[in-house]
Amino acid sequence: MKMKVVALAGGTGSAKLLRGLSRAKIDLTVVANVGDNFWAYGLLVCPDVDIAMYTLAGIADRERGWGIAGDTFAVLSQLGRLGAETWFRLGDMDMAASLLRTGYLRRGLTLTQATAKLAERLGVNDKILPATDDSLQTYVRTPRGLLHLQEFWVREKGRPRPIGVEYRGASRAKPTRDVGEALARADRVIVCPANPITSIGPMLAMRGFERLLSRAGGRVVALSPMVGKKPFSGPAGKLMKAEGLRPDSAGVARRYSRFLDAIVIDRGDIPLAEEIERTRVSCVLSDTRMRSLSDGERLARELLRA
Amino acid sequence: MKMKVVALAGGTGSAKLLRGLSRAKIDLTVVANVGDNFWAYGLLVCPDVDIAMYTLAGIADRERGWGIAGDTFAVLSQLGRLGAETWFRLGDMDMAASLLRTGYLRRGLTLTQATAKLAERLGVNDKILPATDDSLQTYVRTPRGLLHLQEFWVREKGRPRPIGVEYRGASRAKPTRDVGEALARADRVIVCPANPITSIGPMLAMRGFERLLSRAGGRVVALSPMVGKKPFSGPAGKLMKAEGLRPDSAGVARRYSRFLDAIVIDRGDIPLAEEIERTRVSCVLSDTRMRSLSDGERLARELLRA
Questions:
Q1: Residue B260: HSE in the Cβ half-sphere, 13 Å Cα cutoff
Q2: Shortest distance, CA B43 to any CA of chain A (angstroms)
Q3: A62 min Cα distance to partner chain B (Å)
Q4: Which of B70, B90, B67, B58 shows the shortest CA–CA distance to B12?
Q5: Chain A: residue nearest B90 by CA?
Q6: For residues B67 and B57, what is the distance between their CA atoms, to the nearest angstrom?
Q7: B109 touches chain A (CB under 8 A)
Q8: Which of A76, A203, B212, B306 is 20 to 30 A distant from A227 in Cα terms?
Q9: Which of A95, A98, A117 to mutate to test the interface with B (most CBs of B within 10 A)?
Q10: What b/e readout covers A258-292, taking b as 16+ CB neighbours within 10 angstroms?
Q11: Using N-to-C axis directions, what is the helix angle for B92-106 and B111-121, rounded to 10°?
Q12: How far is CA A79 from CA A73, A288, B60, B116, in A?
């Protein structure tokens, strides 16, 4: 029997690890963040669900960290000529998935069902589950007002000072039954190197999600997204500070301490190990930077063993 | 003061004349067919409105007779990979207009307002008015059941034998106030060389539309879409027969005889002239084939004089 592994995943950083995990002989279920879902041009765009899907289908754009390799932007260019805002860079092939997904949802399918249909057509063998089928979106409080995560990070390029984060819909959103079952059956739960505030945070903000993790079948291990005070990618540092967390691997471990058994941190962060162990999280040292596919495969193995 | 001209227009054949009319020093309003509007991938596609818009913006694909010159099909290809039907060939740039239009409609704009916004952004100086803001779609009765015009003509390539035509929504659809005013003020109304059943038919099926034409400010003149028994393009012949009309210029004149003052027919159809005059429609002979832009300009001048 293959080891049942559930990976909680966000965007770019997570995708690198998912690539490694997908090469392992395991039964992999990805629970994807939906907090960055965004309505653009009347379409529901799910960047984190899609990057997991494209990564596992082998068509993700690895250079850029989002979207499909070789995608074009003909629709977006014309939308610009027609007077629409085009800061949200949705590629043509990428748009096709959002068109179909939006259609499926309008016909009454859940996001879970819509994702399964798309992933199947792309030949994905692993399972991809949106964390919830309910509306749950991440907003960032800034001196310029409340911004959707995509407005904050993509449109405003992360420049406004974040004061805090709101997970809209979190009080009503529920993890899906599929997610609950996958976690209960899991031999191992892996928290990908994702932004703890904007990628894993929305899941944790749902009532009952942390309890599902505490009761997960196997150990819960994380790969820290931070090396020193820098994240692999994205705005993790600023947002962790805004949410009262130290922007380093110790802050990540603290945020996850209620359910985490172990965390893999970068060797250079050895001074943080003692502090992390004090939160009853085991600390494993490694080279956590993923420059190549083999780095991802090695880290996947370490997380499966940790 | 420029002559105020209203052109009733359908698709490919109409576009050739519109190109000629747009070069004339006139105040041009196009009343565009909506009977071929079609929902594809959750988007309202309006082929006849758009071909008028692209033609007057100078970006239409003249070779193909639909869509935008140089358009690509990246979204459509990916939709196909994702398991969607792709018989409706919607280009990437073309799709951008439908995306924005659908968004405008969802936000409560009328199709007239949505069209005006798109046309303005494309630099169109002439006015383009959808014949109605209400739902009005052409269906073809066949031995294989009732098919939307696009299903009949594009998906089934016009192969099923048409038994008749239904204009869905015609009993409730009303010509817009803008259309009514344009016709009342018109110094000349031109019926483009369009399919009398599927392009002009939906307009005529609306209660009150023929009365608007009868009361139009100026003379109503048509350019016949038929040369002998053949239409310029599209399925006019078969559908005219299915609707009990002879598939030639005399059949066209008969269909329009309640409001038409004159019709320009091809010189080769001179044997039909006497029959047409008997329906009290004046007959003008010309070379009606439009092979080049200058043919369209010449015919535009003849229609403005007729």
A1: 34
A2: 9
A3: 19
A4: B67
A5: A75
A6: 12
A7: no
A8: A203
A9: A95
A10: ebbbbbbbbeebeebbebbeebebbbbebebebee
A11: 140
A12: 10, 40, 17, 15
The single-letter DSSP state of residue B65 is S
ipTM: 0.92
> Is the CB of residue A33 less than 8 Å from the CB of residue A203?
yes
Which pair of tokens denotes residue A192? 């990908």
* Residues of chain A positioned with their CB less than 8 A from the CB of B41: 99-100, 103
All residue ranges of chain A with pLDDT < 70 are: none
Residue linked to tokens 């792309």: A122
In chain B, the residue whose alpha carbon lies closest to the alpha carbon of A120 is: B82
Residues of A in contact with B97 (CB under 8 A): 78, 82
pLDDT at B234: 76
pLDDT tens across the length of chain B (306 residues) = 899 999 999 999 999 999 999 999 999 999 999 999 999 999 999 999 999 999 999 999 988 888 999 999 999 999 999 999 999 999 999 999 999 999 999 999 999 999 999 999 999 999 999 999 999 999 999 999 999 999 999 999 999 999 999 999 999 999 999 999 999 999 999 999 999 999 999 999 999 999 999 999 899 999 999 999 888 777 788 999 999 999 999 999 999 999 999 999 999 999 999 999 998 999 999 999 999 999 999 999 999 998
DSSP 3-state assignment of A65? Answer: coil
Distance CA A26, CA A230 (A): 31
- pLDDT for A152 equals 94
Chain centroid to CA B300: 16
Q: Under a CB-based contact definition with an 8 Å cutoff, are residues A220 and A259 in contact?
A: yes
Residue A45 contacts B, CB cutoff 8 Å: no
- The Cβ-side half-sphere exposure at A115, using a 13 Å CA radius, reads 31
Q: Residue A185's pLDDT is what? A: 97
Taking only the tens place, the pLDDT of each residue in B55-86 is: 999 999 988 888 999 999 999 999 999 999 99
Contact list, A93 vs chain B (CB under 8 Å): 74-75, 77-78
Hey, is the C-beta of A84 within 8 angstroms of any chain B C-beta? yes
Q: What number of other Cβ atoms are within 10 A of residue B144's Cβ?
A: 13
Q: In this structure, what DSSP letter does residue B279 have? A: T
Q: Are A165 and A122 in contact (CB under 8 A)?
A: no
What's this model's pTM, rounded to 2 decimal places? Answer: 0.92
